[in-house]
Write a structure and sequence with these properties.
With 375 residues, the chain is mainly α. It has one domain: Cytochrome P450 (Cytochrome p450, Orthogonal Bundle), CATH 1.10.630.10. It contains 17 helices and nine strands. The strands form four sheets. The protein has a three-stranded antiparallel β-sheet with strand order 1-9-6. A hairpin with a 1-residue loop joins β7 (350-353) and β8 (355-358). α4 crosses α6 and α9 packs parallel to α16. It is globular.
């Protein structure tokens, strides 16, 4: 995680632009689709981290190049093919044919990547050759340096695949998590009040920057509890990451499974285990993470898996937590959000195509008066 701190300027640039957009939208009485804007934010952050250049989602407020649409289209198919893999050889070609314009988003990302590769090749930047060192270099610059020193083992294909994978996988988890955190705070206003007290206390002492640093966020225990609790109740992924029982079989939780059996754990089920999280496991209660019972905290941490576990752990989890930890205290401090009338008396609707995405997270936004630090 320490190496990611050097990416904070990338996150800050996008956070500044994101709040600029919130300021603009706050002047309208129309509801704002916050999941869309959180996804724009996440896409541009990962674009900066990958290429040192935003794709422009926050600049335009729209699906640049059809990338989001292509991703939605791909996830729907990939979920079906993952559950029924025998259908994949027969349907994949048809799916690509029917995708039509929705498939253009993938081509846009590939073209953007190739254009950036050519720019870096034309105007190479000096890079740190020591791979163990830490710097603010974007992924593409590091990939190009690796390609220069090992062109036969780290080819242009690897650069293209690595950068494209960042873009394809780098936004949904963050956008969904940011949406869940804000949603549960608005559904539980006493928790929002408590978080603002923590934020105001740090601000009054001059210990919280305009754009909060990751280090500052780690000194906010209630903020961290809010994040963990929201990701417990609404982990971004809603399907198990499966494993195959090895030769000889395996005993799991006291039950024997023969070799070849496909097994998996759904975090939405595990996170609601009352034996681990208590009788109120279905409720949003950040204080459960702040009890003094270390054994209970340890048990909950073992079951907390919004980013997966083991070999299936999300490799971008630290980038996601960096974005979340910096943005949430900033927008909670600087803006008032209210649920649109359609959400005030009911729960939001979601779709589970591997990622569990909210469909109707519409909010109204108003700026809050600035908090003053003590002199």
């Amino acid at each position: 995680m320490s190496s990611l701190i050097h990416y904070e300027p990338f996150v800050d640039e996008c956070s500044d632009l994101f709040t600029q957009r919130l300021d603009e939208m706050s002047s309208s009485s129309l509801p704002v689709d916050m999941r869309h804007w959180f996804q724009c934010y996440a896409f541009d952050v990962i674009g900066l981290i990958t290429y040192a250049k935003r794709l422009g989602f926050l600049d335009h407020g729209e699906d640049v190049g059809g990338v989001i649409g292509a991703l939605e289209n791909h996830l729907g198919y990939a979920t079906m093919a993952g559950i029924f893999p025998k259908l994949h050889p027969y349907l994949f070609g048809i799916k690509n044919y029917l995708a039509g314009a929705k498939g253009a988003g993938r081509a846009y990302v590939l073209k953007f990547t190739m254009d950036r590769i050519r720019e870096v090749q034309t105007n190479p930047k000096p890079v740190e050759t020591d791979e163990s060192s830490v710097s603010m270099e974007d992924f593409l610059t590091k990939f190009m340096a690796k390609h220069t020193t090992s062109p036969s083992t780290f080819t242009t294909y690897h650069i293209l695949a690595g950068c494209s994978a960042n873009m394809i996988a780098g936004s949904d988890t963050t956008a969904i998590s940011l949406s869940a955190i804000l949603y549960y705070l608005l559904k539980n206003p006493w928790c929002l009040d408590k978080l603002r007290l923590e934020i105001n206390d740090l601000t009054a002492r001059g210990e919280l920057s305009k754009s909060p640093t990751f280090g500052e966020s780690q000194q906010m225990p209630y903020l961290q509890a809010v994040i963990k609790e929201a990701l417990r109740l609404h982990p971004a992924t809603g399907l198990p990451l499966e494993r195959v029982v090895p030769e000889g079989g395996a005993t799991i939780c006291g039950k024997f499974f023969p070799e070849g059996t496909i097994v998996g754990i759904n975090s939405w089920v595990a996170h609601r285990n009352t034996q681990v999280f208590g009788h109120d496991a279905d409720a949003f209660n950040p204080d459960r993470w702040l009890v003094e019972d270390k054994d209970r905290i340890s048990a909950m941490n073992r079951y907390w898996m919004p980013f997966g576990l083991g070999s299936r752990t999300c490799i971008g989890r630290h980038v996601s937590m960096l974005e979340i930890s910096k943005l949430i205290p900033r927008i909670v401090r600087d803006y008032d959000f209210s649920l649109d009338a359609t959400l005030q008396s009911k729960e939001w609707k979601t779709n589970d195509y591997f990622f569990v995405k909210p469909l109707d997270f519409n909010l109204h936004i108003a700026p809050r008066p600035p908090q003053k630090a003590e002199l």
